[in-house]
Design a protein that fits this description.
4-stranded parallel beta sheet, 2 domains, 50% helix, alpha/beta, Rossmann fold
């Protein structure tokens, strides 16, 4: 028996990619065609999250996440994941009161970066994420340096995420812009880049990027698959 995965979703496109990855790649680990763990996903309206995010009210964000995790726990989820990097700023407030354990998206990315022996990562995501301690804290813990884009690039990246990517709009001109920013990060010494908004991997692929990418969405999904297959002690 595999463990039941609970997905606490926020924005639709990133959550959908995470869910699809779990379902499609499950058979590779389980070894049976079409097999994957049981999955339950819940989200509250995205605009409710945005009200608190824009106000910098992380307790308000945590309350929404707790409402979602309570629902997935009640239908049997054994642990939870959240395919949204930005709202991990509320993670510590959530984990204190959560009825089930969680995986942390940035911790899983940091673990994978360490496994690949990267030394310095560029971090892309919403302005709220890039200017937060979510990735610095986890990268510092494993001895990896990091760089974020300059302020004008942070603003433009944020606009693309919220005006295009969360709506499922993926334009070539925006892909080119992201690749230009990644090139700047490479020139500042980064040997890989974190796609730290769960929608970015739908716009920028490994093939597009000037340096290797760490796809936070799929890394989290694969970590959840491995967790679901772990045997209890």
């Amino acid at each position: 028996m595999t463990k039941h995965i609970g997905i606490v979703a926020c924005s639709a496109e990133g959550a959908a990619l995470c869910y699809r990855t779990i379902c499609i790649e499950g058979e590779n680990l389980i070894g049976e065609k079409y097999a994957h763990p049981e999955v339950t996903m819940h989200t509250l309206p995205f605009n409710e999250y945005m009200k608190y995010i824009e106000a910098g009210d992380w307790q308000g964000v945590a309350n929404l996440m707790l409402a979602s995790v309570d629902k997935v726990a009640k239908v049997g989820a054994d642990f939870a994941i959240c395919p949204d990097n930005t709202i991990h700023q509320a993670f510590d407030l959530v984990i204190e009161k959560s009825p089930i354990p969680w995986l942390h998206i940035a911790e899983e990315v940091a673990t994978e970066a360490k496994r690949r022996n990267y030394k310095c990562l560029g971090v892309l995501g919403t302005r709220f994420l890039m200017e937060s301690s979510v990735y610095p804290a986890k990268l510092d813990a494993v001895g990896i340096e990091y760089v974020i884009p300059e302020i004008e690039d942070r603003k433009r990246i944020n606009e693309i995420i919220f005006n295009e990517l969360v709506y499922g709009r993926f334009y070539p001109i925006s892909r080119e812009y992201f690749c230009e920013v990644i090139s700047k990060l490479r020139d500042q010494g980064c040997d890989a880049v974190v796609l730290g908004c769960t929608e970015i991997p739908l716009l920028v692929t490994e093939k597009d990027s000037p340096i290797p990418t760490l796809d936070s969405t799929r890394i989290l999904a694969r970590a959840a698959l491995k967790k679901a297959l772990e045997k209890d002690d």
